[in-house]
Predict the 3D structure of the following.
Amino acid sequence: TDRYAIEVDFLGKWKEGIGQSQFYSSKTKKLPALFLVHDRGQIDSHTLQLAADEAQRLGIHLVSVVATQ
């Protein structure tokens, strides 16, 4: 977007997504954002909380996206 450098990844790859969002942010001078995709019935709340805590610590906008299929 005009404001955010967005990385989209699966919840299980949240660590890679954090790094990628930081990298894209540094290259584009936009705010870092990470969209984490997971299945509706298979949300791992512990992993999502770890990702959210780290994203908050690093100033990365985090969005949890539920896959419909």
